[in-house]
Amino acid sequence: MNNPIIRLLALGILALALAGVAHADTPKTVDGVTTIHLDQYNGYFAAEETLMGLQPGTYEFVVTNKAGKAAGFQVQSAETHEQLVVFPLDPGETKSTRVEITSEGFRYRCPINPPPWYEVGVSG
User: For the whole prediction, is pTM greater than 0.85?
Assistant: First the structure.
């Protein structure tokens, strides 16, 4: 990487990626319930809060369909693949659901326009 322009572009991309990570909020826990906001787009989810370092407990997922077409939300146990919740979302619709997450962790995706599973580990 002797070309200074390529080096500068690579550093710029890295800075943008790190800036996005640095701005993720810490999930808020109120009365024992931790809230996670997810926006669903065509083929991916964007989380408002960081999903790193989560503990077992009760989670409220607030999911907004920004895909512009019918979508859905599905959560399973990461270890057993037991279905924890699944529901449809109309375009522009926001729904929330409470799920009990164990130390097995969880995974989520859209069951209608299925992207790969998002695997989330839980410590504790």
Answer: no
